[in-house]
């Protein structure tokens, strides 16, 4: 009897386990949407449950003609009130302008999902971005001409020697008359930075518009990237990049209107692990290619430009430091490690007129400045 009971229990557990697996499998929802950009630029977003870390996608034309098979091993993360989803990115450039496309998607399970391009929901890029009311009036600049842009890891408002000095950050931006700045390691309501809302303080003191992209939230405290601009920020989106669970990383993207001219200003702070950075760079690469033109990407990449993962960026982005052959000047001033890991990159429709690194102790990173203008 005991053996029979044991067998029955094992069978019941097996059936329960099978039933549970079947339920989870059936409740997995895969979605595809097209984010429509300017002209023919579009981005396909593939939404999956968070347990799916990679997918294989087959692309067909006219139902049967095989075009490509693509392994997507990197993703961003999007949160809503209802759920959290992994988001895999695919630029429509791979479709070569073809319309009658269908996809077979294999999300790491035995089944396949079939989607047709003509049936996908199309969302305008502007509607996809989150909007907030700016708390600062900002200063309108009357001419496009030359923009002064900056990338600055402010080390949560502490100097290289540990002194709290957010006012020195303000002074540096003001004294150099910066038009748009991408900031990393910005605190909001954190003990180590005296519970200040750092980006709001910077915005008020400098009379600039701002957006904030927190990547870490703990008990009301926040930490992340930010953008300050003398020009109106029309919309923005904060994307969670792939990486480890210990410290989330993000890409803060904004659309800024400069007297009728629209530019995209992006700031990021990449991870410390090489494999992590590789995935993050792949994700950023998809967004930059989607935007296509008038893009400025700045940030702390935590790697040198000699990294093989940097090569994709160099195919279509200009490194402001290289224009002036200043790529050997370090931007991180650590006690042991000194290197150039902070960058200002632009699409080729910008001309870099000047580049400099400010040698200062107000952070463990040096501020990086470039003067850029739109090419004719």
TrEMBL record:
GO biological process terms, semicolon-separated: GPI anchor biosynthetic process
A GO-annotated cellular component: membrane
The species this protein was found in: Geosporobacter subterraneus DSM 17957
Lineage, uppermost ranks: Bacteria, Bacillati, Bacillota, Clostridia, Peptostreptococcales
Keywords attached to this entry: Endonuclease, Exonuclease, Hydrolase, Nuclease
Domain Endonuclease/exonuclease/phosphatase: 150-365
Protein name: Metal-dependent hydrolase, endonuclease/exonuclease/phosphatase family
GO molecular function terms listed in the Swiss-Prot or TrEMBL record: endonuclease activity; exonuclease activity
Domain of life: Bacteria
UniProt-listed Pfam families: Exo_endo_phos (PF03372)
């Amino acid at each position: 009897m005991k053996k029979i009971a044991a067998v029955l229990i094992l069978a019941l557990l097996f059936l329960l386990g099978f039933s549970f697996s079947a339920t989870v499998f059936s409740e997995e929802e895969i979605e595809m949407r097209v984010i429509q950009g300017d002209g023919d630029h579009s981005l396909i977003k593939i939404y999956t449950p968070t347990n799916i870390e990679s997918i294989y996608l087959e692309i067909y034309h006219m139902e049967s003609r095989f075009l490509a098979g693509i392994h997507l091993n990197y993703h961003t993360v999007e949160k809503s009130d209802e759920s959290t989803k992994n988001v895999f990115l695919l630029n429509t450039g791979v479709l070569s302008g073809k319309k009658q496309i269908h996809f077979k998607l294999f999300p790491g399970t035995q089944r396949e999902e079939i989607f047709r391009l003509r049936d996908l929901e199309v969302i305008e890029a502007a509607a996809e971005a989150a909007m907030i009311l700016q708390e600062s009036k900002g200063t309108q600049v009357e001419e496009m001409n030359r923009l002064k842009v900056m990338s600055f890891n402010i080390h949560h408002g502490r100097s290289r020697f540990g002194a709290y000095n957010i006012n020195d950050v303000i002074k540096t931006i003001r004294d150099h008359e910066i038009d748009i700045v991408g900031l990393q390691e910005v605190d909001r309501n954190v003990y180590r930075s005296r519970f200040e809302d750092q980006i709001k303080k910077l915005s008020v003191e400098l009379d600039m518009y701002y957006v904030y992209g927190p990547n870490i939230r703990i008990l009301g405290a926040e930490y992340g990237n930010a953008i300050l601009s003398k020009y109106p920020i029309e919309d923005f989106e904060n994307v969670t990049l792939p990486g480890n669970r210990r410290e989330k990383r993000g890409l803060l993207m904004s659309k800024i209107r400069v007297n009728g001219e629209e530019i995209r200003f992006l700031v990021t702070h990449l991870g410390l692990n090489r494999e992590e950075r590789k995935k993050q760079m792949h994700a950023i690469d998809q967004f930059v290619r989607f935007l296509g033109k008038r893009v400025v990407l700045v940030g702390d990449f935590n790697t040198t430009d000699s990294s093989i993962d940097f090569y994709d960026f160099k195919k279509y982005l200009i490194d402001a430091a290289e224009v002036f052959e200043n790529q050997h000047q370090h931007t991180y001033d650590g006690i042991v490690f000194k290197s150039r890991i902070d960058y200002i990159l632009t699409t080729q429709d910008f001309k870099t007129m000047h580049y400099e690194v400010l040698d200062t102790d107000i952070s463990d990173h040096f501020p990086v400045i470039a003067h850029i203008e739109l090419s004719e």
